[in-house]
Write a structure and sequence with these properties.
Keywords: Cell membrane, Membrane, Transmembrane, Transmembrane helix. The chain is an all-alpha fold. The chain has helices spanning about 1-25, 30-55, 60-90, 100-110, 125-135, 140-145, 155-180, 190-200. The chain has 8 helices and no strands.
Length: about 200
């Protein structure tokens, strides 16, 4: 249960920071869209988790533990560096790579700046825009589902917490951003990075 809560905290942090940015820029997310984003992330987490559980039945436990460590460690380091990476990508926006799949290019753009999901600049996320945001925020969930397979005894509790907490922090972030817009400038990506690193080392000790 403790590991489940740690994982959900780490996974919901990006959504929380994104919603603060939305609130600071007066972009609204309805309750329906917030929990749509949450449902997509939880579904990605669940699919990757149950798929990985099936795969781990063919792999020795010690190998699974080290794979899990490696994935969580990667997520931790990438989260710690995320603020710097976003700055680099924003500075090189004019030299942005063009992908054959424009949808993927757009999702990557949202991953670097979540407020770009508001494509029509009407200050309200539509269902389509919410889905783009959900996909961008679900990348860590896909990797985490694989990483936590075998280490979570109550997967349904994990998924329920993921759905409720992620949707709730999205709505809370909007309110915080509305009231205290300056917090948007804070780089808090390191918080999820630290949590991912803690999860990584719990897999091998």
């Amino acid at each position: 249960m403790f590991h489940s809560l740690l994982l959900v905290i780490a996974l919901s942090m990006d959504g929380f920071l994104a919603s603060i940015a939305y609130g600071a820029r007066n972009i609204r997310i309805s309750v329906w869209i917030a929990f749509l984003v949450s449902a997509v992330g939880t579904t990605c987490l669940g699919i990757s988790f149950f798929f990985a559980q099936w795969i781990t039945s063919f792999i020795p436990v010690w190998i699974c533990s080290w794979i899990s460590f490696g994935l969580f460690f990667f997520l931790g380091i990438s989260s710690l560096c995320k603020g710097m990476l976003k700055t680099v990508f924003k500075n090189r926006r004019k030299r942005q790579l063009t992908f054959a799949c424009s949808g993927f290019s757009f999702v990557l753009d949202i991953y670097m700046d979540e407020t770009k999901a508001d494509m029509d600049f009407n200050k309200r996320l539509s269902v389509k825009e919410g889905l783009y945001l959900a996909i961008a925020l679900s990348l860590d969930s896909l990797v985490s589902g694989i990483a936590c397979a075998g280490g979570i005894e109550q997967p349904l509790f994990l998924l329920l917490c993921s759905f409720i907490i992620t949707g709730s922090v999205l709505l809370a972030g909007i309110k915080i951003g509305n009231v205290w817009g300056k917090i948007e400038r804070w780089n808090l990506s390191w918080v999820s990075g630290i949590v991912f690193l803690i999860l990584a080392f719990t897999r091998i000790v």
